[in-house]
Design brief:
Length: about 70
């Protein structure tokens, strides 16, 4: 499994490559954050059984915010 930092960069780059304008940097970060927020919300529905997964995605979110 990728580290949270690697996953954050991967998601950022996927959104960045979808738009070739210079404004895409901010757009890519915002879209990646929205994506990870939705993943965390989905895991929250299942409770503590998936706490390790939630922690991973929260770390990915932290790394995205650092970009």
């Amino acid at each position: 499994m990728e580290t949270p930092k690697e996953k954050a960069i991967e998601l950022y780059n996927k959104f960045r490559n979808a738009n070739s304008t210079m404004a895409a940097n901010g757009y890519a970060k915002k879209q990646a954050i929205i994506c990870v927020d939705e993943i965390i919300k989905a895991f929250d529905l299942y409770g503590n059984d998936l706490m390790g997964e939630i922690n991973y995605w929260q770390e990915v979110l932290n790394e995205l915010n650092k970009l």
